[in-house]
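Standup notes
- DV: blocked on the single-chain target, sequence here:
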Amino acid sequence: MLVDESLHSRAAVDFSVAAPAPEGSRTTSQGHPRTIFKRAVERGNLFLAEATAREMGRLSLADALELTALVANKEPRRNSRFAARWLAIYLDEREATIEEVSLIASCLVALTGPPWLDLGRGQKRTAIRPSVKTRV
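- DV (later): unblocked, structure below
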């Protein structure tokens, strides 16, 4: 599948923290873009998921991880770029030890297998929840 690489720049799919939908935001006959995105991910429709992510402008960290997993499953050659972008944003938002970063990076590499898509949404959110540690 030939894809215009410029469509996949950081500006095209901003994996920043989710913001509420602006007042008077557009919805289609299919519903709100976030609903369309989630449905596209559930159905494995990468083209629609990416297009809707661009329309939304921002994704939650969990939604961005689901898109990264979908890319890894549908177009494995693009996995490294998406996974690295997701990890960079994760590190911008959360404090993590080198051991945690190593584990997360290993898991991102492993996304090219289908088991991730079989996990429920709650399990995926648990997988990215930061560990809580008391710092002295």
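- Follow-up: Residues 30-128 form one domain.
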